[in-house]
Amino acid sequence: MATQTRVLVTDDLDGSEGARTYRFAWGDTRYEIDLSDAHRDDLLRALEPYITAARKTTAPRRQRAVAD
Protein backbone atom coordinates (compact mmCIF):
# COMPACT_ATOMS: atom_id res chain seq x y z
CA MET A 1 0.00 0.00 0.00
CA ALA A 2 1.33 3.43 -0.98
CA THR A 3 1.15 6.39 1.36
CA GLN A 4 1.00 10.00 0.21
CA THR A 5 1.72 12.92 2.48
CA ARG A 6 0.67 16.37 1.31
CA VAL A 7 1.66 19.63 2.92
CA LEU A 8 -0.84 22.42 2.57
CA VAL A 9 0.68 25.85 3.19
CA THR A 10 -1.85 28.44 4.27
CA ASP A 11 -1.54 32.22 4.36
CA ASP A 12 -0.59 33.40 7.86
CA LEU A 13 -2.83 36.46 7.52
CA ASP A 14 -6.11 34.99 6.31
CA GLY A 15 -5.69 31.20 6.22
CA SER A 16 -6.18 30.92 2.46
CA GLU A 17 -4.54 27.94 0.75
CA GLY A 18 -1.69 27.96 -1.74
CA ALA A 19 0.67 30.26 0.13
CA ARG A 20 4.44 30.25 -0.17
CA THR A 21 7.02 30.89 2.52
CA TYR A 22 9.00 34.14 2.47
CA ARG A 23 11.94 35.08 4.68
CA PHE A 24 13.13 38.51 5.68
CA ALA A 25 15.20 40.12 8.41
CA TRP A 26 14.95 43.26 10.47
CA GLY A 27 17.76 44.18 12.81
CA ASP A 28 19.24 41.01 14.22
CA THR A 29 16.02 39.01 13.88
CA ARG A 30 15.08 36.80 10.95
CA TYR A 31 11.43 36.19 10.12
CA GLU A 32 9.50 33.72 8.02
CA ILE A 33 5.90 34.16 6.86
CA ASP A 34 3.57 32.20 4.59
CA LEU A 35 1.75 34.48 2.14
CA SER A 36 -0.59 34.18 -0.83
CA ASP A 37 0.46 36.02 -3.99
CA ALA A 38 -1.86 38.93 -3.14
CA HIS A 39 -0.43 39.36 0.36
CA ARG A 40 3.12 39.00 -0.96
CA ASP A 41 2.38 41.84 -3.38
CA ASP A 42 0.97 43.94 -0.51
CA LEU A 43 4.16 43.38 1.50
CA LEU A 44 6.39 44.25 -1.46
CA ARG A 45 4.41 47.45 -2.16
CA ALA A 46 4.77 48.49 1.48
CA LEU A 47 8.53 47.80 1.48
CA GLU A 48 9.31 49.08 -2.03
CA PRO A 49 10.33 52.66 -1.09
CA TYR A 50 12.66 51.32 1.60
CA ILE A 51 14.13 48.61 -0.61
CA THR A 52 14.74 51.16 -3.37
CA ALA A 53 16.53 53.54 -1.00
CA ALA A 54 18.50 50.84 0.82
CA ARG A 55 21.96 49.49 0.12
CA LYS A 56 22.46 45.77 -0.54
CA THR A 57 24.80 43.97 1.80
CA THR A 58 26.23 40.51 1.99
CA ALA A 59 26.00 38.22 4.96
CA PRO A 60 29.12 38.30 7.11
CA ARG A 61 31.38 35.33 6.61
CA ARG A 62 31.52 32.89 9.46
CA GLN A 63 34.92 32.39 10.99
CA ARG A 64 36.08 28.79 10.77
CA ALA A 65 37.57 27.33 13.91
CA VAL A 66 41.28 26.67 13.64
CA ALA A 67 42.49 23.42 15.16
CA ASP A 68 45.53 23.61 17.41
Automatic annotation (TrEMBL):
One of its GO terms (molecular function) is DNA binding. InterPro entries: Lsr2-like_dimerization, Lsr2_dim_dom. It comes from the Bacteria. Residues 1-57 form the Lsr2 dimerization domain. It holds the Pfam family Lsr2. This is Lsr2 dimerization domain-containing protein. It comes from Cellulomonas cellasea. The lineage of its organism: Bacteria, Bacillati, Actinomycetota, Actinomycetes, Micrococcales.
